[in-house]
Amino acid sequence: MKERYPNLVRDIALAPTIELENSYLFKAYSVGEREYNLKPQLIREVVYGLVEKIRQFPEDFDYLVTVQPGGSAWGLAVAFYLEKPLKTIWERGTGFEDEFKVHHKGSYHDRDLFFRGFRPGDKVIFLDDVLSTGITASLIISTLQEHGVIVKGAFFIVTKGDSSGKIEKEYKIPVHSLINLPRL
């Protein structure tokens, strides 16, 4: 049987493992937030794969939401092909009136995330690169829901272990990915 995402599978297999602060072992996928050496065939495969999955999604939505740094490039490309607006959650604030900040302490992040322009009743799809522990996705989805934003689903390039099931159960939304890997 032919592999559905051969370039992505190869990229994952060849990804180096690096040790971050607190002895956290991190797989540095080219498609992840430590993007490097993205070849056109990998970009095409990932973007077309995400676009295809989202087009098959039965729920209507107003725009895509992504987070910097890992999801921003992918969100931009996918939004372009879907002809949907994109809102990005940033690591730096702008000072605009409609912006609010949430602190994010994850496995290897300790940063503030800045949300801007979200309104109650907006229907969105969250898109990011990798769902590993689920800490970042949980923070973003719960923050959006607390502000009245209706999160219709979440899409990732790679999910690990049962993290997608935890997000689905806790936030009552479907989670989709191109590839699900076992937790190491």
Task: Write up this protein.
With 184 residues, the chain is α/β, with parallel strands linked by helices. The chain has one domain (6-181): Rossmann fold (3-Layer(aba) Sandwich). Helices cover 32% and strands 32% of the residues. The strands form three sheets. It has a five-stranded parallel β-sheet with strand order 4-3-7-8-9, sandwiched between helices. Strand 8, helix 5 and strand 9 (175-181) form a beta-alpha-beta unit. The radius of gyration is 16 Å and the shape is globular.
Topology (SSEs and partners):
Elements: H1 6-14, E1 17-20, E2 24-27, H2 40-56, E3 63-67, H3 72-82, E4 86-89, E5 99-105, E6 110-116, E7 123-131, H4 135-146, E8 150-160, H5 163-171, E9 175-181
Parallel strand pairs: 3-4, 3-7, 7-8, 8-9
Antiparallel strand pairs: 1-2, 5-6
Helix pairs in contact: 2-3
Shape summary:
globular
Strands of the largest sheet, in order across it? Answer: 4-3-7-8-9
Q: How many β-strand stretches? A: 9
Helix fraction by DSSP (H/I, runs of at least 4)? 25-40%
Structural class: alpha/beta
**Termini, distance in Å?**
26 Å
Q: Characterize the largest beta sheet: strand count, sense, and whether it forms a barrel.
A: 5 strands, parallel
Order of helices and strands: HEEHEHEEEEHEHE
Radius of gyration: 16 Å
CATH class: Alpha Beta
CATH architectural grouping: 3-Layer(aba) Sandwich
On the 0-100 scale, what is the average pLDDT? 88
CATH fold category name: Rossmann fold
**Poorly predicted ranges:** none
Helix count? 5
Number of domains: 1
